[in-house]
């Protein structure tokens, strides 16, 4: 019955694994970035950052998080920064079971370069200092992520993960 929240760095696999986990458990899947885009009338994450700045984005992000009701059988893929702003991590822990997908900055870089998504305003693939940026953010954010109820490697297969969390949900 409990909601499941996936937290971790951008490209750690929250959206990808989240969808698979939801299918495996028969839960619904939501991505908080998608909820933000909806709430903002279809404006992209890039557009929100460019036009209104990060503080505005973080305010909408917290607002969207607070619309999630406990015990809704949801798998929630959060945005990479969500746990580090406002009271978000504490709130996540009151409305669901949280899982930190831990992936090294080097692996995150490899995934970002391989998949070529350009929808992350704080992590530009063209930036020659992207690895440094990822390392810095990973260091800054890790203590928030580690507040999750469970930490697993970002390589964990969905079958294994669903077995691990069964006793908690
Ligand atoms: N376990 C994995 N192994 C290899 N690549 C992965 C894995 N999980 C996700 N990816 C790839 O990494 C990219 C980012 O994944 P995504 O799920 O969007 O991450 P997040 O939502 O955490 O930012 C995607 O292109 C996805 O295919
Ligand atoms: O790390 C971050 O601060 C962000 C991560 C993004 O989500 P993903 O982790 O799904 O890329 C998105 O919320 C926004 O670009 C900010
Ligand atoms: Mg995502």
Automatic annotation (TrEMBL):
<comment type="subunit">
    <text>Monomer.</text>
</comment>
<feature type="binding site">
    <location>
        <position position="33"/>
    </location>
    <ligand>
        <name>substrate</name>
    </ligand>
</feature>
<feature type="binding site">
    <location>
        <position position="15"/>
    </location>
    <ligand>
        <name>Mg(2+)</name>
    </ligand>
</feature>
<feature type="binding site">
    <location>
        <position position="58"/>
    </location>
    <ligand>
        <name>substrate</name>
    </ligand>
</feature>
<feature type="binding site">
    <location>
        <position position="120"/>
    </location>
    <ligand>
        <name>ATP</name>
    </ligand>
</feature>
<feature type="binding site">
    <location>
        <position position="80"/>
    </location>
    <ligand>
        <name>substrate</name>
    </ligand>
</feature>
<protein>
    <recommendedName>
        <fullName>Shikimate kinase</fullName>
        <ecNumber>2.7.1.71</ecNumber>
    </recommendedName>
</protein>
<comment type="pathway">
    <text>Metabolic intermediate biosynthesis; chorismate biosynthesis; chorismate from D-erythrose 4-phosphate and phosphoenolpyruvate: step 5/7.</text>
</comment>
<keyword id="KW-0028">Amino-acid biosynthesis</keyword>
<keyword id="KW-0479">Metal-binding</keyword>
<dbReference type="InterPro" id="IPR031322">
    <property type="entry name" value="Shikimate/glucono_kinase"/>
</dbReference>
<dbReference type="InterPro" id="IPR027417">
    <property type="entry name" value="P-loop_NTPase"/>
</dbReference>
<dbReference type="InterPro" id="IPR000623">
    <property type="entry name" value="Shikimate_kinase/TSH1"/>
</dbReference>
<comment type="similarity">
    <text>Belongs to the shikimate kinase family.</text>
</comment>
<keyword id="KW-0057">Aromatic amino acid biosynthesis</keyword>
<feature type="binding site">
    <location>
        <position position="141"/>
    </location>
    <ligand>
        <name>substrate</name>
    </ligand>
</feature>
<keyword id="KW-0963">Cytoplasm</keyword>
<dbReference type="GO" id="GO:0016301">
    <property type="term" value="F:kinase activity"/>
</dbReference>
<keyword id="KW-0808">Transferase</keyword>
<keyword id="KW-0067">ATP-binding</keyword>
<keyword id="KW-0547">Nucleotide-binding</keyword>
<comment type="function">
    <text>Catalyzes the specific phosphorylation of the 3-hydroxyl group of shikimic acid using ATP as a cosubstrate.</text>
</comment>
<keyword id="KW-0418">Kinase</keyword>
<feature type="binding site">
    <location>
        <begin position="11"/>
        <end position="16"/>
    </location>
    <ligand>
        <name>ATP</name>
    </ligand>
</feature>
<dbReference type="Pfam" id="PF01202">
    <property type="entry name" value="SKI"/>
</dbReference>
<keyword id="KW-0460">Magnesium</keyword>
């Amino acid at each position: 019955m409990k909601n499941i929240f996936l937290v971790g760095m951008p490209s750690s696999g929250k959206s990808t694994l989240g969808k698979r986990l939801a299918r495996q458990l028969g839960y619904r899947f939501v991505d908080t970035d998608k909820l933000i885009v909806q709430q903002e009338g279809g404006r992209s994450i890039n557009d929100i950052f460019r036009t209104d700045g990060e503080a505005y984005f973080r305010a909408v992000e917290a607002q969207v998080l607070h619309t999630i009701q406990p015990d809704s059988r949801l798998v929630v893929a959060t945005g990479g920064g969500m746990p580090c702003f406002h009271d978000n991590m504490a709130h996540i822990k009151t409305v669901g079971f949280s899982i930190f997908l831990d992936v090294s900055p080097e692996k995150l870089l490899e995934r970002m370069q391989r998949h070529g998504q350009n929808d992350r305003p704080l992590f530009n693939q063209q930036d020659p200092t992207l690895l440094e940026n990822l390392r810095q953010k990973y260091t800054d954010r890790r203590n928030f992520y580690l507040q999750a109820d469970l930490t697993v490697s970002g390589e964990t297969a969905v079958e294994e993960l669903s077995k691990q969390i069964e006793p908690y949900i």
